[in-house]
Write a structure and sequence with these properties.
Layout: E1 28-31, H1 36-39, H2 41-49, E2 54-57, H3 64-72, E3 76-78, E4 84-85, E5 88-89, H4 95-102, E6 106-109, H5 117-122, E7 128-129, H6 133-144, H7 148-166, H8 168-180
Parallel strand pairs: 1-2, 1-3, 3-6, 6-7
Antiparallel strand pairs: 4-5
Helix pairs in contact: 2-6, 4-7, 7-8
Length: about 180
């Protein structure tokens, strides 16, 4: 282990990834994994298909612009529900979470194994963290009952969070601060 390690999450282009500022009625949930095995997609799809909500998904790999267009068509992105990968602890949100947030989407994902490191470093994010299928059901059914104005407000909070913490500019400033402290 390095002495005095620092934590830095990846950066995304929040200037390129712009929200639509719209909300569907009823709201639309979506899941478009880069890898269905890594993301726990079969469990996500099974849960979502058991609920009385609008849900779109695809396991098809598409180009980056096509992936962004798919995410733009929904209101809530479900990124991940996999507590292990290859028999080891997993369940940590990734770049797709940040991209969906930049597009102004509410995000449902996991952050199981960081022991509070993210919150200590960046503050508490406006992300819906889940641990299991029951959590996913509760969060989805809860969001599905909210008004459009609430959903739009949550989308704006999510967008602001990613711009303020994970845009190229915010990440660059954090990196400079880290480097200046060495």
């Amino acid at each position: 282990t390095a002495p005095n390690p620092k934590y830095l999450v990846g950066a995304i282009d929040t200037d390129l990834l712009q929200p639509t500022g719209e909300c569907s009625t009823p709201i639309k949930f979506g899941h478009y994994p880069s890898s269905k095995d890594v993301k726990g997609s079969l469990d996500i799809v099974n849960v979502m298909q058991s609920l009385p909500v609008q849900f779109k998904y695809s396991f098809d790999r598409v180009s980056y612009p096509e992936q962004i267009e798919r995410i733009k068509e929904i209101d809530v992105y479900i990124e991940l529900m996999a507590s292990t990968q290859g028999g080891k602890p997993y369940g940590s949100f990734g770049i797709t979470c940040l991209e969906a947030a930049a597009l102004g989407k509410i995000v449902i994902t996991q952050n199981l194994n960081d022991n509070g490191l993210y919150n200590e470093t960046y503050d508490i994010p406006p992300i819906n963290f889940i641990k299991n299928k029951e959590d996913l059901k509760k969060v989805v059914l809860g969001l599905d009952n909210y008004s459009d104005s609430f959903i739009l407000g949550q989308q704006m909070l999510t967008r602001n969070w990613v711009v303020n913490n994970h845009s190229y500019e915010a990440t660059g400033k954090r990196l400079i601060k880290i480097l200046n402290g060495l």
